[in-house]
Amino acid sequence: MSAHAEAAGHEHHGPPMANRSSRLDPATLGMFLFIASEAMLFGAFFTAYFFVRVVNPDAPATWPPPPYHFPIFVAGVNTAILVTSSFTIHWATQAIKRNDRNGMRAGLVVTILLGSAFLLTQMVEYAHVGFNTGDGAFASVFFGLTGLHGAHVFVGLSLLTIAAVRAFKGHFSAEHHHGLEIPSIYWHFVDVMWIVVYFAVYIL
Amino acid sequence: MKNPLRDEASAFRVVVLTLGGAVLVALGAWINTWLGVVVFLVLVGVALFAIRGGMRQRPTQAHVVHDDGPARKILVVANETVAGGELHELLGRKAKGVSEDVLVVCPALNSKLNTWTSDEDGARAAAQGRLDSSLTRLREAGIAARGEIGDGDPLQALEDALRVFPADEVVVSTHPPGRSNWLEQGVVEQARLRFDVPVTHVVVESLSDST
Question: What is the mean pLDDT of residues B104-126?
């Protein structure tokens, strides 16, 4: 049978078959695209932030405008907590790649505890920051950016909790640990975004 | 282009680099606001350059499946030259006197814009047409050949094929130097570095006698 005849025999209606390359598996590609859309969402919030702080002709000369202050030290401690959680989730994924299930479980539990500590500290910070969303545009963008990030931490924690439940049920192995690796990539993204938020809002 | 979020380890590297970059920007801004802006722009440029592939794509050793079966397995990667006379002559010589199994992979070459917009249908259809005529000629010459369309990147197409086809030898077919885009990109050299199978390079001078 000629190649053309074979091709005609296999002809089908509808869209062509998807081309799957080993360059990137579909699940990781899905998370990559999701993260790309999330980066754009954060980009919109940063645009509002820099507009209020830099472009706006009525922008305050000092940031935040007096008499308010941002709790730089507390946020710095929170930054250290979140950066540490990236190291612990990296430890967890490296552990399962070596088939060390106890290491993976320990890494996951510590990461969830650190993430929860971050959220708790942020709530305490909100309670004591001394201004609210109605106190000016600076306050709106502050709560908007940090609140958006906090929501992402919550989503990341939910994903990691699901991964932890599966880890304790023995679902992951050295060969199959997508259910851990993909939430870990998201967690690293959340961490990167916080570093940018912290330096842009609190430090600069 | 390198995906910085390909796996968890790459994403972790991004976290560490972002932290280092943020510290540098803050230090620069502390000295002078504009210095901070310059540091930020330089870091963004370096990051984009690294994502783009750096000075040269570093070949990494890829996993190759091996098979001790009786047939000699030859993997051919060719696009516009897939119907070239020199390629078919070479395959005829290699298949002479042995039981052969030839897989021809034809990368679906596409423009960057079409790739990014997932508009692959035209590229795949064109590659399929070239592949079909080549397979017909090979089979007429008595060579047991089959074919498939591969990734637009020839090295990626090779790697994909080698994961499922335990080739004893790889044949890369190109236009002559000066006309070949693949030679300009160093595809043959990179294939030799990347895969632990013998790689033969065949130059197809003219397609006039084969089309």
Answer: 83
Contacts of A83 in chain B (CB under 8 A): 15, 19
Instruction: Supply φ then ψ for residue B68, to 5 degrees.
Output: -100, 25
According to CATH, what is the number of the domain A25-203?
Answer: 1.20.120.80
Q: What tokens does B66 get?
A: 């091996």
Bridge-based pairing of strands B199-203 and B169-174 is: parallel
**In this structure, what token pair is assigned to residue B168?**
């004893």
> Are A152 and A159 in contact, with CB atoms under 8 Å apart?
no
| Best residue in B5, B114, B165 for a mutation probing chain A (most A CBs within 10 Å) | B5
- Structure ipTM: 0.78
pLDDT at residue A184, rounded to an integer: 95
Q: How far is A29 from chain B (nearest CA, A)?
A: 8
List chain B domain ranges. Answer: 8-52, 72-203
pTM for this structure?
0.65
How many residues would you count in chain A? 204
Dump pLDDT digits (tens) for A19-30. Answer: 555 556 677 778
Of B5, B18, B163, the CB nearest to A35: B5
End-to-end C-alpha distance for chain A, whole angstroms? 71
Q: Which of A1, A10, A19 to mutate to test the interface with B (most CBs of B within 10 A)?
A: A19
Give the model confidence (pLDDT) of B43-76 as tens digits.
Answer: 989 888 887 766 555 555 555 555 666 678 899 9
CA-nearest of B121, B85, B139, B207 to A5 is: B139
Q: What would the pLDDT profile of B143-169 be if each residue is shown by its tens digit?
A: 888 898 988 888 888 888 888 888 889
Q: Does domain B72-203 have CATH number 3.30.450.20?
A: no
Binned at pLDDT 50, 70 and 90, residue A73 comes out as: very high
Instruction: Pick B110 or A18 by higher pLDDT.
Output: B110
Candidates B6, B8, B163; nearest CB to A90? B8
| Partner residue opposite B26 with nearest CB, options A181, A192, A203 | A203
Q: Would an 8 Å CB–CB cutoff place B179 in contact with chain A?
A: no
